[in-house]
Amino acid sequence: MFKLKKYTVFIVTLLLGLLLTAASISLYYWQAINLANGRWQQSQDQLLDQFRTQLLLAQSDLQLIQAAFIAQNQLSPEQFNQLQLQSQSRKISAGVLAMGFVRPVSADFLSQYIEQNRSDTRFATEFYSVFDVASPQQKEALQIVDMLSPLNSTTAQWLGFNLAHNAAFKRALERAKSSGQPWMSDGFTASLVRTESLVIYLPIYRSLFNSSTPALRSSNYLGSAIVLLQTKPFFAALDRLAAAAGLAFRVVDHGAIDAVARSAAAAKIRYSSSNFQPDASSGLMLAPLNVLGRQWRFEFQPIASALSLQQMQFMAWLAVLGLAFSLLLASLLQRRNRLPQPVLDDNVDKQNLRLIQELPTRTLLEAVSDPLILRDARGQITYANAVAELRLGQHDRSLLGSIEAVFDAAELGRLSMPQQLMVSHIDRDEQMRQYELMLKPLRDDRLQWIGTVMQARDISASAATIKSLREQVERLSMMVEISNDWFWEQDPEGRFTAVSGGFFTDLDINPALFIGKCRWELGHGGLSAAQWAAHRAVLASQQAYRDFEYQTELNQQALHLSVSGRPVFDHNGEFIGYRGVGRNVTAIRLAQAALLAEQQRAQATLASIVDGVVTTDLNGRIYYLNPVASALLGWEPEMAQGQYLSSVYQTIDAKTRLPLAGLAALALQNSASGHGARRSILLNKLGLHFYIEESAARIRDDAHGTLGAVLVFRDISNWQDEEASVFGF
Fold first, then answer.
1. d(C-alpha 534, C-alpha 49), whole Å
2. Is 491:517 a contact under the CB 8 Å cutoff?
3. HEC profile for 435-502?
4. What's the CA gap between 325 and 318, in Å, rounded?
């Protein structure tokens, strides 16, 4: 025990050093763990965004098909294939096998339908010539895959497949048809594909209607656009991103959103990373997601250590250095403690003793990185540390003994309370700096004021940063104010919490009218209750939306507004509302209405004249033909549109009976604006001959650029003139 007391200083110092080292290592460890968790959380958000983006991209391609079918109810397989070449989802997502169109077919007309597809040899003859449909089990409507793109030996297995045979496909198809919204089916594995697949449906109706009801949708139902999505390749692309971020994940499908009853047993695992440990509950992070009518749950699991090899090596070196420093310091203090202490003589100078006691204090003051100045009651500087002398002193004299203010006259006043000032100062190196001054009164044991201490903190860097941020905020605010768009924020209940933008200034509208109200509380907006209910359902499911249009009247002005929004979540993943942008599309909609009216007037004019009129594009494909031209040519307008004019319109010379060059083609090839009238014999599709007079001209835009050609011809077979008698017509 006596020997241990001799080494008390050594033991205590060593333990304190080890404790400080352990605390430093622990602090560094937890900081590294928090950084790793932050990286993993960011990677999770990116993976979820990638998953949602790829599905929404597939949905946008389906909407492109929907728009094409609404514009033209009958699309040929060739037109459908050309339409799919514009899609982007197959270029981005490896899981998209094909896109197609599902047509409802009655069992009574199945044989006619099969024969019609086999006889159409204009596109992919090797696949459509053997087009077939399995015989239905009962007399019910079939849902047949009518068109596919791309069409190859793999995807052709789906051509003619009846989706109504599969319960999962049929259930999702009916939900999409009844709701009018895109829907995803349950997983499906069949002989058609080797891996599990999902099918996304988007119903297509013959026309758009403002007030949508189930009965109206059912009577106008034309078919559904579909995306065939292979589960394994689709999620494998996400798996590669997750592995690069040090994560493994599992995707659990909880079924349709509108399911009446759901249990944990009904959930199905759609995909699981090869290194995902289902039994390991530690570190498991859950992320729910609702998209395309289904509920998903992503389960993430870290597969890499939170600490890198370099971080672990740094911690090891920190432990070694801490131990070595602790041993060295403990040894030095133990040796000093064992040296004989000198006895102070009664005659030691008390002034020297006071200087010895003040020496550590002065050392600490000199170590301060900020300028530090002490003044006595007369305002004279009695102390200035090295930083103060270096920055604030004059080139020819020191600060000590000066009674002049360095920054501000407040330094010389009698202070009763601490003061804080912000000043600018040109330092000794002729640099302008920003300082935060802290002035504090000094008091003795009787609380009498005996001087002032001033600390000057250099805030030049932070002041520049604050100034830059303020300028950026002002610049952004100015851009928002001069923008024709308007920006808004909503709380979780859909009430406006903030609106701004040049839209309100241009139309002299008070933004306060929107605050605290929901969008549907500001008027019906020209939409039906069902359309508002569909929009509110999107908000309830916390999905992003784009270009939602409605009408309103503000300041006695009828406006068409288009808004887009995205859900906003806090750092805990809690939904806190929506944020988005609005656009005034009144001018666009009015222009579209005027253009439509003008087109209708032009078509009515062309339909009422007695001459046949045919217009083509630059390639010579038929764009329009009026009823007179349709009757003379023997072609229906729907069948003729898109065909080359040379395959529909054929003329021969009245004397030689030799084929004549097309006037429309000559007008497009030659620089002349048009070709004068000539007489010829027209051979139509039905084998009839007409003696006609024809002429052609270019169609030009305002910049004199060529848009196409127009061909005008009239039947003169009944003219009782000399030519009619010569040729016998």
1. 23
2. no
3. EEEEEEEEECCCCCEEEEEEEEEECHHHHHHHHHHHHHHHHHHHHHHHCCCEEEEECCCCEEEEEECH
4. 10
Helix, strand, coil percentages for the chain (3-state, nearest 5): 40, 30, 30
Residue 339: pLDDT over 60: no
Output the six-digit token pair for 384: 């200035």
For β-strands 557-569 and 674-683, DSSP reports them as: unpaired
Task: Say yes or no to pLDDT of 92 above 90.
Answer: no
* CB distance 696 to 712 below 8 Å: yes
Tell me how crowded residue 59 is: count the other CB atoms within 10 A of its CB: 20
125: buried, middle or exposed (CB in 10 Å: 19+, 13-18, 0-12)? exposed
Do the beta carbons of residue 348 and residue 356 sit within 8 Å? no
d(CA 78, CA 80): 5
Which helix H or strand E contains 57, and what residues bound it?
Answer: helix 8-71
* Separation CA 177–CA 188 (nearest Å): 20
pLDDT at 673: 55
pLDDT in tens, 215-227: 788 888 889 998 8
* Structure confidence at residue 565 as a pLDDT band (50, 70, 90): very high
Distance CA 564, CA 579 (A): 9
- Provide the token pair at 554: 């503000």
For the CA atoms of the chain, what is the radius of gyration? 42
pLDDT digit string (tens) for 445-458? 788 888 899 998 88
CB 556 within 8 A of CB 508: no
- Listed residue (93, 45, 188) closest to 569, CA to CA: 45
d(CA 21, CA 320): 9
Side chain identity at residue 458, one-letter code: D
Let me know: does 442 contact 449? Beta carbons within 8 Å. Answer: yes
The mean pLDDT value of the chain amounts to: 81
The dihedrals phi and psi of 667, each to the nearest 5 degrees, come to -65, -35
Q: Which residue has the higher pLDDT, 32 or 348?
A: 32
Cβ atoms < 10 Å from Cβ of 140? 10
Query: In sequence order, what E strands does 257-402 have?
Result: 268-272, 285-291, 294-302, 372-376, 381-384
What residues contact residue 332 under an 8 Å CB cut-off, 6+ apart? none
- In three-state form (DSSP H/G/I as H, E/B as E, the rest C), the secondary structure along 171-219 is HHHHHHHHHCCCEECCCECCCCCCCCEEEEEEEEECCCCCCCCHHHHHH
* Closest to 577 in 3D by CA, of 490, 691, 669, 682: 490
Residue scoring higher pLDDT (283 or 143): 143
Alpha-carbon distance 464 to 94, whole Å?
48
Comparing C-alpha atoms, which of 260, 225, 220 is closest to residue 89?
A: 225
The token duo for 118 is 């086999």
- Cα–Cα distance, 457 to 363 (Å, whole number): 19
Distance CA 612, CA 606 (A): 9
b or e along 652-683 (b: 16 or more beta carbons within 10 Å of the residue's beta carbon)?
Answer: eebeeeeeeebbbbebbeeeeebbeebebbbb
Q: Which amino acid is at 420?
A: Q
Residue range 293-313: mean pLDDT, rounded: 82
